[in-house]
What we know:
The chain is built from 2 helices and 8 strands, in the order βββαββββαβ. The protein is mainly beta.
Amino acid sequence: MKYFFLSDGWVVGRVWEFGGLWNEQSWRRKPELARLPLGIVEQGERLWLYQVEAAVLMVEVRQAQAATSTIGQVVLKRLIDAEQAIARLATADSLFQA
C-alpha cells in the first residue's frame, strides 16, 4: 500500500498506474483508494491520510469547488510508503480522528 495526505476541500481526480491512466475496463475495477479516519494538522491546515493500492503511481487532486479553469490543480507525483506516513504523523503539529 501507498499513502498521501490531502487537504480538506480537495478531491482525487485521475489516477495513474504503470501503463498510464488507470483503465477501469482493463483492470475491471476502480483503483483501491480510501480516506482513512486519521489526519494531521500542519500550519493550521487539516490534512487527511489516504491509502492507495501498490499499483497506483500517482494521483491528480483538485479543489472540490474549483472553476472550470485548470488553475488550482495539483498532481501528486510521489506517493509515500507506510514508514514515511508514520514519520509524518509523528512530526505533525497535531493529529485528529474522524
